[in-house]
Amino acid sequence: MKDFFDEHADRKAWMSLLAKAPNGRVSALLDGAIERPAFTWLRAPEIGSAMVRGRAGATGAPFNLGEITVTRCALTIESGAVGHAYIQGRSKADAEAAALVDALMQTDAAEMLRTNVLEPLRKELEQAKATRAAKAAATKVEFFTMARGED
Amino acid sequence: MQSETLSGGFTEPAIQSAHAFRSIMNAMARPGTIEQLDSAEPPAPLSKAAGTLLLTLCDTDTPLYLAGDVDCDAVRAWLAFHTGAPLVGPGHCMFAVGSWDALMPLNAYPVGSSEYPDRSATLIVESSELGDGMTLRGPGIQDTHSLSLPETAAFQVNRAMFPLGLDFIFTCGDRLAALPRSTEVV
Amino acid sequence: MYVAVKGGERAIENAHAWLAEERRGDTAVAELGLAQIKEQLKLSVDRVMAEGSLYDPDLAALAIKQSRGDLIEAIFLIRAYRTTMPRFGSSKPVDTGAMACDRRISATFKDLPGGQVLGPTFDYTHRLLDFKLAADGEVPETAMRKADAGHVPHVTKFLNQEGLIEESPQDDTAPPDLTREPLEMPANRASRLQALARADEGFTLGLAYSTQRGYGRNHAFVGELRIGAVPVEMDIPELGFAVEIGEVTLTECETVNQFKGSKTEPPQFTRGYGLVFGQSERKAISMALVDRALRWKELGEDFENAPAQDAEFVLYHADNIQATGFLEHIKLPHYVDFQSELELVRKLRREAVSAQVQEAAE
Q1: Which end of chain B is more exposed for a tag (fewer CB within 10 A), N or C?
Q2: Strands A62-77 and C54-55
């Protein structure tokens, strides 16, 4: 079971990264890295939703909170590798780019794409997160104990 | 995952599913009428008609029961990709597919409640033949209609439960006919 | 007599055209772009997403523009759009413990791991109109400080350790979905929370306020309020594993409520829960208070006849799209209905008059 999990950890990580990339960013990085290969649609890009669930009291029974928009597609490239994309939002072009990256990550181009697409993407998202976290940290309250007149 | 198990879906989902839905609706509205349905290329042993039906009617909100031979890896993978329908046992399904014998017993399926008679299962029966046979009467049939059925008694019992009950769709190759719960089998 | 009438097409068309012109307003003023709405009217966008029950800032911004800033009309547009989309699945329950918090405060503990983080709040502003904004919005530089790494634990965890608060044990029952099946009474907590999450902010606020004023009192402290981003993870059937498909900003409120104990429960603190799309702490706190009020039965409390305790009253009137649909439909033509009412009143009148005449004669 452990091996099964690890086998997918890498792909999970890059698909998650591609799902959260800003509009047009994956396309730009992909086109800067490699010429897009020919591909066949297994499932043309489709816009839909996913129901987001929360838990009562943060840890209890799940409930339905509301939906998010999602675009998905699947394609196959010449090598036979199948690329899937499930990305947030309603961009068919971004879904196509994400599925191509997913397919190419299963080929010899993987290392090159990791360096030129995934790493920059990861860094950009981390940077954005770090900036927000730093702004939040600056609003953290420092309490001072005042002298109390008890005696 | 092999890309072959991912092919065979609708090439033009919007148009093909609308056409298929129209055929299924006609079949239900005019029990016993044979319609053609062939836009999908499902893996064996699913028929084209059953495959097209499932792609048209099933999604992640419709629990599906695969009975007998059709419960195989190829069919499971194909349906997971194209419909995402959760696979369940007969007691919790909205749709079931398989041969008549594999689908038995009928009392395992939900027949709805008096508040919600629609919360019942639709059985897709893969059949080796589809043509004339038993006499049908009821809503959607001018006088009588003729349809080959695997048996009579089960459908009479089902008719007696109306408005509760199961609905049946018989598939054979690229053809299908329906027998809703409102139809009387003479 | 019933006379079918038809017409008004030209009038409707012209009304639509005028509506479009009024929406645009004075063309000498620059047109509002969707990005401007998304960035500068973010809290409106958040409300439309929360009550529209669809997280997509671009769509919400479009809906706000199209509805001329009428947020309930915008929510209506989002709800209508939502119904046209195929649903690919349901996410795993989001882990708010792993939230990247922009804001996180507790009214119950001053010193708590992770600290009191104010975030971009209106709370300590003076509520004085800032006329500088009317001239030009110059942005001061935001201070930054090194952030602590690691997750910020929930406050209720500390109370849990002492056993002083009711547990909220994990449970993985698939929840009912109001957008798929009609609400049934008695509604379980999952249905109630879904209904409250998409409920009208004003209605929820009013109900929550009524509990504070004594109608079904359940003295509430904000144990914790947090706002921030959480990833959304979903199982992908064709892959056989789960991936993150996006990220949403949520506001979460956990209230800690005084509870003297009941026939079934020991004295302890009880909990109310609010979770809302976007940044909306007024809604999240209101939701938590109403959630707690609705839990009277499972905690063995008395029903005090308070509106906020009455699940049927709360849940059937909390949805502003249902409410506005039914309310506003009475302005549409009811010529035939009214004609029959008119006939009825005339008939009753005639009968009353003839009865009087008869009485006078006798």
Answers
A1: C
A2: parallel
Q: Give the contacts of A95 (CB within 8 A, at least 6 positions apart).
A: A45, A71, A72, A73, A85, A87
Radius of gyration of chain B measured on its C-alpha atoms:
16
Interatomic CA distance for residues B167 and B29, integer angstroms? 12
pLDDT confidence tier of residue C334, bands split at 50, 70 and 90: confident
Residue C2 reports pLDDT greater than 70: no
Residue B2 CB coordination number (10 Å) = 11
Second-level CATH architecture of B10-185: 3-Layer(aba) Sandwich (3.40)
Cβ contacts of residue B148 below 8 Å, gap of 6+? B127, B129, B130, B131, B132, B133, B134, B170
Cα separation of C239 and A12, whole Å?
A: 10
For C253-273, letters b (16+ CB in 10 Å) and e give bbbbbebeeeeeeeebbbbbb
Q: In this structure, are residues B138 and B182 in contact, taking their beta carbons and an 8 Å threshold?
A: yes
Distance from C-alpha of B40 to C-alpha of B34, rounded to nearest angstrom = 18
CB A140 within 8 A of CB C116: yes
Smallest CA–CA distance, residue C274 to chain B, in Å, is 26
Name the β-bridge partners of C222: C255
| The pLDDT value given to residue B134 | 93
**C64 and C48 Cβ atoms separated by less than 8 Å:** yes
| Smallest Cα distance from C314 to chain B, Å | 23
- d(C-alpha C230, C-alpha C152), whole Å: 13
Identify residue B66 by its one-letter amino acid code. Answer: L
**CB < 8 Å & 24+ apart, contacts of B17-24:** B17/B55, B17/B56, B20/B52, B20/B53, B20/B55, B20/B56, B21/B56, B21/B57, B23/B176, B24/B53, B24/B56, B24/B57, B24/B169, B24/B176, B24/B178
pLDDT at A95: 97
Q: How much is the pLDDT for C4? A: 64
* Residues in CB range of B107: below 8 A, 6 or more apart: none
Q: Is B84 on the interface with A (CB under 8 A)?
A: no
CB within 8 Å of chain A, chain C residues 296-355: none
Cα A118 versus chain centre, distance: 10
For testing contact with chain B, the best of C185, C238, C245 (most B CBs within 10 A): C238
Peptide bond connecting C266 to the previous residue in cis, omega within 30 degrees of 0: no
* Nearest chain B Cα distance for residue C309, angstroms: 26
Which residues in chain A are contacts of B1 at CB distance < 8 A? 82
**Per-residue pLDDT tens digits for C51-102:** 999 999 999 999 999 999 999 999 999 999 999 999 999 999 999 999 999 9
Kindly tell me if the per-residue pLDDT of B4 is higher than 70. Answer: no
How many other C-beta atoms can be found within 10 angstroms of the C-beta atom of residue C98? Answer: 12
Judge whether residue B43 has pLDDT over 80. yes
**ipTM topping 0.95:** no
Which of the four pLDDT bands, split at 50, 70 and 90, describes residue A147? Answer: low
The residue ranges of every structural domain in chain B are: 10-185
User: Mean pLDDT for chain C?
Assistant: 91
- Say whether residue C63 is in contact with chain A using an 8 A CB cutoff: no
Axis-axis angle for helices B48-57, B73-82 (nearest 10): 40
pLDDT recorded at residue C267: 84
Query: What is the average pLDDT across B35-59?
Result: 94
